[in-house]
Amino acid sequence: MAITKIHPIKSTLNLAIGYIIKDEKTNDKVLISSFYCEPTTAHTKFMMTRKDANTRGTVLARHLIQSFLPGETSPEKAHEIGLELCKRVLKDEYEFVLATHVDRGHIHNHIIFNNVNMVSRKCYQSNKRSYHQIRNHSDDICRENKLSVIDEHYEKFKRKYKTAGKSWYENQQHKQGTSWKSKLQFDIDRTVRQSKDWDEFLQKMTGLGYEIKFGKHIAFRHEDKQRFTRAKTIGKDYTEERLKERISDNDKAQGKIKKREPDRVINISANEKIKSSKGYEIWARKHNLKVMADSVVSLRDEGIKSLTQLEKSIQEKAGARQDLSDKIKVIESRMRHLSKMMEHAHIVTKYREIYKYHKENPRDKHFENEYSAELAAYKVAAKEILKHYKKLPKTKEILKELDKLNEEKSKLMAEYTATKSDIDRLFALQKNYKTFKQNDLER
Fold first, then answer.
1. CA R_g for the chain
2. Which residues neighbour 360 within 8 Å (Cβ) at sequence distance 6 or greater?
3. CA dist 90 → 33, 151, 264 (Å)
4. Per residue in 364-385, pLDDT tens?
5. For the chain, domain boundaries
6. pLDDT digits over 90-106, tens only?
7. pLDDT in tens, 177-220
8. 2-150 has which fold?
9. Would the pTM count as exceeding 0.85?
10. CA nearest 400: which of 349, 341, 328?
11. What residues contact 268, with CB distance under 8 A and at least 6 apart?
């Protein structure tokens, strides 16, 4: 596995090149190569090319580091890989000095190349795209030489599920189900259920303080956030296409019944305004009669014909909500387990060559002491993996299951939120019934 890093050199170019070509680091300068320059005077050649191109930028050169796992490759092979990387990335258009260091526990290449292209006279553009190109070239060369590469599935896992990537606040909010992404999910679900068409959905989301950006993927940014969030990142049900489908299915899903929070019955005996105004009392009694009539119609639409049935319905919905909560907890437990297995699988893969070398060379105490932490981590991870798997699981499969569980959890969370509004509505109807009956008894 080769890990790459790159950073600019803006001063003391001669010292930087002098450092990477030291005798004690490069096996007496055997592991040094260069292109269109001499290593000891490369900084002068770099500056001449820069002067000829009339370049005024602050960056003099780029320093690329390519590191290999301990015991995975030989110094000579690492140097060959470094030369091939220079060929693919720099394409014989930049002067460079390559030095392979062997003075530490892991072999690594240092490549310092001119920031100015000696053919086009343009400066090297260092950005995310160019860095990914370097990493992809490095990975390709490692594969060709039968070396391990960075696990792309583990990298995706880290970005999506590893809590270390979250701030303390966001992690706490995530645990409580109130993170900003959870809030966005909640607001979208609620607004979808309340909207008759796409325009109404957009209008309601705007009313909740969201700015909406359209493009290949619809994105939302709340007024108290700095960045937009693509809706698809919180689940497959949140793409623009699926949101439109969900809104169009509202009538079918709700049985074309508009369920809303009922008006409240006024408690006549406890209302001070009624005691001082006969007119208000008459209005309140008419209001209560209308509310109760609407409440009875609403309950009968749901097949509820008595207070006993209403209380039973509340209990059933509360039980269903508890079942949803239990299912969510089971999924979260499984996701935590898979996350641990992903970490263990990553450690086993990362330190496998170190452990293999140690097993083949048990008398190399210097190596054992230097990599004692890595060897201990490997043993613990391997032991945990064997408790649950017969062989090392594929990180791709673990990530696939995590994504599936996360999508299922999102749907259950939406249901869980919806059941609360249903229970609150039934509680309000129950309270109306009891308050109305109490008013009758006090008349």
1. 33
2. none
3. 14, 25, 74
4. 887 788 778 889 999 999 999 9
5. 2-150, 178-258, 307-442
6. 999 999 999 999 887 67
7. 446 777 788 889 888 888 888 988 999 999 888 999 998 889 99
8. BirA Bifunctional Protein; domain 2 (3.30.930)
9. no
10. 341
11. 274, 281, 284, 285, 288, 439, 442
